[in-house]
Design goal:
Blueprint: H1 17-29, H2 44-56, E1 60-64, H3 67-77, E2 85-89, H4 95-102, E3 106-110, H5 120-129, E4 134-138, H6 147-157, E5 161-164, E6 172-173, E7 176-177, E8 184-188, E9 201-205, H7 208-219, H8 233-237, H9 252-263, H10 265-283, E10 290-291, E11 298-299, E12 304-308, H11 314-326, E13 332-333, H12 358-365, E14 367-371, H13 378-402
Parallel strand pairs: 2-3, 2-4, 4-5, 5-8
Antiparallel strand pairs: 1-9, 6-7, 6-11, 8-9, 10-12, 12-14, 13-14
Helix pairs in contact: 1-9, 2-9, 3-4, 3-7, 5-6, 10-13, 11-13
Length: 403
């Protein structure tokens, strides 16, 4: 009998009981705004910032209303503005070029490798030829490039790096936490990320002036002394009259939900990786399918799973996606002509006026992607792998026979 998977690819695991209790406590007293505190009270948001800074090893942390707000705040803190060129991955999601466009800057995309990371040779060229003001590096779908080489390229050119770590919270390169190589790291706590507050984000940095500017930009109303993971008042004195308020704060309710999740983040990351490896084991050596091999220096978090169908014609990829869907397995294809849900790509962002990137087009033409929620068991992942393997093999063999 043909197997059909019955699980949901969009159902997150329930929030921990401690998070629910903390949320109810905040709802009970009603002080949701991060600066609405009783005398002597330390708010949930300030405590979360302090704890996340400690988790990442950063000196300073700011909690934002979203990951996109964290990225745009980081760019503004760096002084990026209208007309500036900001380099970024061609393979990323819409909030990344959106953050660049939100400050009036112009995204210029860098080619993508078959490892789904930024092409460092193309980056080295575009650092020189574009006059870029900044690199907004996206660790898209949790794939981390050679950060040592990337930083050598950017440091030699004096190009600041802001890391988009929406998919790499808890990951590392050569033992350095993701988000800690560049001048600032940005994270997301949107529902489908590694911690869930519905919406939310973080910005971390070791630079006191960037931290102060970010806090003021986020909307401190000059109440920066209520931040526990921020520089001293003397740093704010240098900036407080010159930085606008763009109101992108996280509130105490979301912070209360996140603090218990942060305490169990490492265990969650280990659980994701066990599921990732179960899929990888089940799909390795499938005819026509290419596993994305992970480098030894990369400590990844496998909260999603990608494979390549290299050289496949679009109709064959669409056939695999449709066949898997009929058996309960939801795959997303990044090579589709029209954007669908979370799979828009650089050619769809017309406001950026992107040029053609043939290497990226070739990679994305065969890229299929799948969420990996922790509601799935290891047995579920083994079943999903069997279904994908069967359908890929079937389409591969039928196309080979037709040729």
């Amino acid at each position: 009998m043909t197997e059909v998977f019955k699980g949901s690819f969009t159902q997150q695991e329930p929030l921990p009981e401690e998070a629910v209790a903390a949320a109810l406590d905040v709802l009970g007293h009603g002080r949701l705004h991060r600066y609405n505190l009783k005398p002597g009270e330390v708010g949930e948001t300030a405590l979360l910032e302090q704890e996340f800074a400690a988790y990442t090893g950063a000196r300073y942390c700011l909690a934002n209303a979203s990951g996109g707000a964290a990225m745009s705040t980081a760019l503004r803190a760096l002084g990026v503005g209208p007309g500036d060129v900001v380099l970024s991955n061609a393979f990323t999601l819409a909030p990344v070029p959106g953050a660049i466009a939100s400050v009036g800057a112009r995204p210029v995309f860098v080619e993508t490798t078959e490892a789904l990371t930024i092409d460092l040779d193309d980056l080295a060229s575009k650092v020189v030829t574009t006059g870029a003001r900044c690199l907004l590096l996206s660790h898209m779908r949790g794939h981390i490039c050679d950060m040592d080489r990337l930083m050598a390229i950017c440091d030699a050119a004096g190009l600041p790096v802001v890391e988009d770590c929406a998919h790499t919270m808890g990951a590392a390169w050569n033992g350095v936490p993701s988000g800690r190589h560049g001048v600032m790291g940005c994270y997301s706590t949107q529902t489908y990320k590694h911690m869930n507050s519905g919406e939310g984000g973080f910005l971390v940095t070791d630079d006191p002036d960037l931290a102060a500017r970010a806090v003021l930009l986020s909307g401190s109303y000059m109440l920066y002394e209520r931040h526990l993971a921020a520089p001293g008042p003397e740093v704010f004195e240098r900036h407080r009259y010159d930085v606008p308020n763009i109101s992108s704060r996280m509130d105490n309710l979301r912070a209360a939900i996140l603090r218990p999740q942060l305490r169990r983040l490492d265990a969650q990351c280990a659980a994701w990786n066990a599921r990732y490896r179960a899929l990888e084991d089940g799909l390795r050596d499938t005819p026509g399918l290419q596993i994305i091999e992970r480098p030894a220096a990369e400590a990844y978090v496998g909260s999603s799973f990608q494979v390549l169908l290299p050289g496949w014609v679009p109709e064959a990829v669409q056939d695999v996606v449709a066949r898997c869907k009929a058996r309960g397995v939801e795959l997303k294809w990044f090579g589709a002509a029209e954007p669908a849900a979370f799979t828009s790509r650089y050619a769809h962002w017309r406001y950026a006026a992107p040029g053609r990137l043939p290497q990226t087009d070739r990679v994305l033409a065969g890229l299929v992607d799948m969420r990996l929620p922790l509601t799935f068991s290891l047995d579920d992942c083994a079943q999903i792998a069997r279904i994908i393997r069967a359908e890929v093999s079937g389409v591969w063999q039928s196309n080979a026979a037709a040729e």
